[in-house]
Amino acid sequence: MDVCFSPEMVTAHSLKHKTVVVADILRASSSITSGIQGGVPAIRPVEHIHRRHYWQDRGYLLGGERGGVMVDGFDLGNAPLDYLKAGAKKQKIIMTTTNGTRAIQVSKHAGQLLVGSFLNLEAIAEYLLKDRPPLLVVCSGWKGTPSLEDSLFAGALLDRLGTEYDAPLSDGARLAITNYRYHKEHLSQTVRNSSHGQRLLGMQREEDIEYCLQQSIYPVVPILKGEEIVALGS
Ligand code: MLT
Fold first, then answer.
1. For the chain, what are the domain ranges?
2. Which among 121, 75, 117 is positioned nearest to 96, based on CA atoms?
3. In the predicted model, what is the mean pLDDT of the chain?
4. Does residue 100's CB lie within 6 angstroms of at least one atom of ligand 1?
5. If you take atom 7 of ligand 1, which residue's CA is the nearest one?
6. Contact 221 CB / ligand 1 (< 6 Å)
7. Contacting residues for 106 by C-beta, under 8 A, at least 6 apart
8. Domain at 2-231: CATH architecture
9. pLDDT tens readout for residues 109-142
10. Rounded-to-integer distance, Cα 176 and Cα 103, Å
């Protein structure tokens, strides 16, 4: 079991036979989890949306942000509750975010790619424990640097999998678990103090932080199928 603390670290890994869990706790992977849980049929993660009309004509909603702020003319920004509510429209979403969708793109050649967040941690853990595949958690970080909240999720997931997984832990995995155990009793305060936590608080997105830190409230396992993320088993 291993952890990449930013997408840049992924190049050091061969992904073909691995299961990758991509995490961008604040907020892309929490938004994707929420959207798929809410009934969005598929989310297409891309680094950039070049032809907006092309996708709109095909029935997609446009979602995403730059620097945390919704892109002009898009239907959705990156607030997870908006993705949950968008499920009612039953439209696919094409999504671009600063770091999260990029982490998915660089990991897409993995044996299988799952999207993880605190919201569906237990569902991801239970799915992984069925076959215990070689596992890599890819944290989206922020513009090439690690993010505390993503590494806390990596640690929480690996801590949950624990000895049941029966696989060696890399130094990165040990680091993530140790960090999670140190902070787990005061997760909310730790994440609020993190750099993206501070950035979101500055944008009055406190609600998003608290929402994203709820643990295992959704049973959904979002999985990449072709170019789109769908609910496992759909
Ligand atoms: C990202 O992809 O960098 C994030 O999800 C940024 C955000 O909070 O919107």
1. 2-231
2. 75
3. 96
4. yes
5. 68
6. no
7. 7, 10, 11, 138
8. Alpha-Beta Complex (3.90)
9. 999 999 999 999 999 999 999 999 999 999 999 9
10. 18
